[in-house]
Structure formats: C-alpha cells, structure tokens
C-alpha cells in the first residue's frame, strides 16, 4: 500500500535528530511536526523570521503579528527567537539549518528539483524554495512517486523549470525512500506491502536496487 | 521636523515627493507587518507607473493589492504573488510586469542596497530560470550567480514602536522585510503603532537605528490575517 499523508509525515519525522534546527515546507512536511519522536527535541525555523515555531494558537492567543511562512497564525515555542528576513536567509544559505523538508513536482537522478512553476499554468512564485534548496546540505523531498495518470515524477532529467540544480540527495515518496548518488536513485526502503517491481516500474530515472530493500516500519 | 526629530504631521506629508514612475520598496510578509496607511495614502494620491518591490503584493482586498484596483503598479518585484485574482488578471493581460525573485535574494538585494554593496554572489537560482543571463562564478567548487542590489526612491515600512528620532522596534514576525526595506529607500517613511519620547527606548533594544529613517508617523492598524489557524484547548 502506498503511504498515507500521515505515514509520509511520520517517516519524515524519523529523520529528526535531537538538537536539529529544521525548516518544514507547506503541506506534508509541516505535518511531520506532529510526529517528533520521543526524547528528540527539534526547533522549527519559519523563513519569514521565526526560530522556535510552536503549534497553532488557541482562539484567544491569535496574534496578527505572529505568522509562519504559510501566513498561518502560530505561536512561539520556549526558547524562540525573532529576526529579519535577511537574517533568516543568512541562516538558510549559510548552512546553519540542519534539515529542510519540502515538496516538489519532479526530481531527477542528477539531484535537480522542479517545484515552483508549470509553464502555461499560473505562476505564483518560488517564495523561499530556491534559497532553501541552494543553502541546505540535508534536504528531504516529499512527493508522490507518480502522477494520477501513472507517470513517474522521478526522472532521468526534469522537464519543468528547475528550482535548484544538483542539490537533492534524498527523496521520500508514497512508495519508497531513495537516495541520489552518482547520477542514480538508490532504493533504500519501500512502503509496507509495495514490491520492488512496482517501484522499478514507476521510476523513470536510473534506479539502483540493492540486494536488500527493507520495508519502512511505523509505530 | 527639526534636528533628529523625524515625526511628520500627516500621511500626505509622509509621502510628499512621491511621483509617477518611481520605485517603492515596501516591508511586510503577506499581510503581516505591512504599512497599511502608507499604502492607502499612495492609493489616495493616485500615483501611477510605480515599480513596487515587496515579498508579496497583498490580496485583492488588502495590502499592496489595493494599488492594483486603479492600476497604479506597472512592475512588481516579488517572490510570491499567489492568492490574488486581480494580480493574476493584470499579469496575464500584460498590464503588470512581474519579476519573480527568490525570497532570500530579495531580502539580500534590499540589505545590499542599503549597505552600499552594489551586487553579491549567491548560489540561489543557479541553473534555474532566475539565473538566466546572469554572471556565474565558481568559488570553492560551487556555482554562484551575480545578483544586483535594489534601492528605492521611497521605502514604506511598518514598525511597532519608535522614539521621535526614528529609532525602531519591531514586534514578532511583523519585522520580516521591514528593516532592510527601510535601509534601501532614498526617502524612508515608517509608520508605527506608538511614538515615545527620545530616551524612552533602551538603546540595546533598538532593532533599527533612526539614521535610516527620514519620516515617521503614528497610525492605527487593521492587521488583517490571511490564514487564521487555531487549535482547540
């Protein structure tokens, strides 16, 4: 079975290490904040200028001056700090954020990512995504493995305009966890009940399948 | 105004000298920390042909979006312009030129513009449409593109508290682009929720020194929220 949104978020959260500063993109990445493993402390960075993002506010706590990068009202966690957008992106480009998780339309086996623009459709802008993929050492891209029509999103070469070039080394899809090394996807884990063959069929880019590909485990 | 006192008496005075076809840099992120009343004053003045530099262009009802109603903006430099049907319509018809700029690059362009740095190299956008036509250099095995600083004829911004000398404090994430926007304006106009006497702010707690501020005015703010998200107790 393909992973649910919640399982994707849970698997992302397994990559959280104690003491990590983490930037989570909108959507499934944000959900991962609900599954921080026990005994692990992470601090969430919101690129509009908040380190130490807390949960959504109670109704009476809502503060128009306190939002996240998705423009949602939020709270501050204990030990939070506030800074300007220039400082925020100095943190990001300077490689100070330990883990970045974001979504994409396409990823290819050269580590390229396309996530912000579909030509001919409405262009909304890249926001902070180009800075995030250019600045972070440790990035996880979360996406569905294939489109609704069964077309692979893990390609030999991205077809859409790029958000970043050669910067992605790990992809988590609803079917598999893959690393990108030396111009190929390496199949590391598969979703429970999903066969290697199924993943091979839905991966258009070069794929290396190790002898053992364990199933993901969830608590 | 006298000496270091930056306080002006009206919004009309705050934006005196703003003319058609000028470049305006605006602070704010979404609707958070936006100079609401200065935007309203630009609308009232009817200034047109503006190039506006800001992370977003508001919504169809609030923020910089209100300057689209009478087509006062000719060009928008921003990182994200979604959630605004009026913006989409004018962009699609070609009436509104749009230069999409990555968020961190936009912040740094403003910062550099205010700090006397004409351009800088960044890895952001290399190998993407943003990097097309820009100088590329390699440092320590990585590729970087040359991005130029931005300055504005005017900067409009919002802070929380100021003293009469224009020393500023911001509040929560309403800080965002405001400090850099102010430094990059040849005429920097700031509106705040409260103006206190000089000496009332602790110098250690001032986020932006008054040297960057030319005109200061106290206003009242609606502070609209784009995505009101709450949890239950």
Count every beta strand of chain A, where a strand is a DSSP E run of 2 or more residues. Answer: 13
The chain-level structural class of chain A is: alpha/beta
Q: How would you sum up the major sheet of chain A? A: 10 strands, mixed
Radius of gyration of chain A: 17 Å
Distance between the termini of chain B: 50 Å
**How do the SSEs of chain B run, as a string of H and E?**
HEHEEHEHEEEEEHEE
Beta-strand portion of chain B reads 25-35%
What proportion strand of chain A? 25-35%
Q: What structural category arises from helix and sheet content of chain B? A: alpha/beta
Largest interface: A-B, 52 and 57 residues
Helix content of chain A: 10-25%
The ordered H/E elements of chain A are HEHEEEHEEEHEEEEEHE
Mean pLDDT reading of chain B: 97
* Average pLDDT rating of chain A: 95
Apparent shape of chain B:
globular
Radius of gyration of chain B: 18 Å
Characterization of the model:
Chain A has helices at 5-13, 28-31, 85-93, 129-135, 196-201; strands spanning 20-24, 42-46, 50-53, 76-82, 99-103, 106-108, 113-114, 139-143, 154-155, 170-173, 176-181, 184-190, 207-208. Helix content of chain A is 16%, strand content 26%. In chain A, the strands form two sheets. Chain A has a ten-stranded mixed beta sheet, with helices on both faces. The radius of gyration of chain A is 17 Å and the shape is globular. Chain B has 233 residues and is α/β, with parallel strands linked by helices. Helices cover 18% and strands 27% of the residues of chain B. Chain B has helices spanning 11-14, 36-45, 85-92, 103-115, 178-183, and strands spanning 23-26, 50-53, 73-78, 97-100, 119-122, 136-139, 142-148, 152-163, 168-169, 185-196, 215-218. In chain B, the strands form two sheets. In chain B, strands 1, 2, 3, 4, 8, 9, 10 and 11 form an eight-stranded mixed beta sheet that branches. Chain B has a three-stranded antiparallel beta sheet with strand order 5-7-6. In chain B, strand 3 (73-78), helix 3 and strand 4 form a beta-alpha-beta unit. The interface between A and B is large, with 52 and 57 residues.
